């Protein structure tokens, strides 16, 4: 077999291996990522002679040039602040899709293989990066969890993307063919798992985006089915069933206790920040929320864990700055994100300490 043929056969499996291990086993995924980039870009510049100077390649070269130029000028004018190396990957890693696209070669089955491996890796990631079933248990009882996937926002975004993909591929997964019952069962379980994960990771922005995307997809599916069916009672029943299903899902999500609690926490934090109110209330789990209390669901180590930041003294779980007698302030006021403590951000803990202690 020629090298080109071997690359053609092995490329989709390399991409699938990387997609399946990137979240659950990051160390292993890094190795597969290197293989994907080397094989993808190597094959692209070796075989794609007519595409070597296409628009994406020019943008890749421009991004590398901007990074090198910026680093060179910083070394020239402010060497004490410059990076030790140009860090070209910060701009060029966005063009990794060139390597992936070349290895998948626009074929449907390799794309589905890579996507399925990525979804499988996402669904098992909580047992490798987080606390497994205990995270699901805590999330089901109202705690905000992130499954160890960087933070809750990233986890919600990933599971929402998986859910949208499953909805888009519902016809392929549930259609006639071999293993139809097994495919339908796996599709149902994966969709339910993604939906539950989206709710218990409690990110309002993703909820809104997912709701809009789901409505658009359902509307497109309804229009397609209406065009295929002749006018008559069946067509009207189908339209009514779709509308009832959309309204039912929207009401079920809106009436969820977890969603109500998340929105109530946000309203309380905003009212306290706007009016200077230091109200506190107790959650079912026992911790205080609002005022100067820190929500344990989003704290990096839970209530009571102390984190030291340069120039900010010691920041306790109750969001106090224990420096110069202490400066009590709600954790939500010290960060750009409610309940999260981020050093070095405008308006963050470091900035507040710098203003309080010149």
Strand content: under 5%
How many beta-strand elements?
6
Rough shape? globular
Averaged pLDDT, please?
74
Instruction: Report the span from N to C terminus.
Output: 70 Å
Question: Percent of residues in helical segments?
Answer: 55-70%
Keywords: Membrane, Transmembrane, Transmembrane helix
Protein name: O-antigen polymerase
Organism: Alloalcanivorax profundimaris
Chart the SSEs and their pairings.
Layout: H1 3-21, H2 26-47, H3 55-77, H4 89-92, H5 97-104, H6 108-124, H7 126-129, H8 133-140, H9 152-168, H10 170-174, H11 180-200, H12 204-228, H13 233-254, H14 257-275, E1 281-282, E2 288-289, E3 307-308, E4 314-315, E5 320-321, E6 327-328, H15 349-356
Antiparallel strand pairs: 1-2, 3-4, 5-6
What distinguishing features does this structure have?
single chain, 358 residues, mainly alpha, two-stranded antiparallel sheet, 15 helices, 6 strands, globular, disordered C terminus, transmembrane helix, transmembrane
Provide an overview of this structure.
With 358 residues, the protein is mainly alpha-helical. Among the domains are: 1-108, no CATH class; 260-356, no CATH class. The protein is 62% helix and 3% strand. The protein has helices at residues 3-21, 26-47, 55-77, 89-92, 97-104, 108-124, 126-129, 133-140, 152-168, 170-174, 180-200, 204-228, 233-254, 257-275, 349-356; strands spanning 281-282, 288-289, 307-308, 314-315, 320-321, 327-328. The strands form three sheets. The protein has a two-stranded antiparallel ribbon with strand order 1-2. A two-stranded antiparallel sheet has the order 3-4. Strands 5-6 form a two-stranded antiparallel ribbon. A hairpin with a 5-residue loop joins strand 3 and strand 4. Helix 1 runs antiparallel to helix 2, helix 9 (152-168) packs antiparallel against helix 11 and helix 12 (204-228) runs antiparallel to helix 13 (233-254). The radius of gyration is 25 Å and the shape is globular. Residues 277-358 have low confidence and may be disordered.
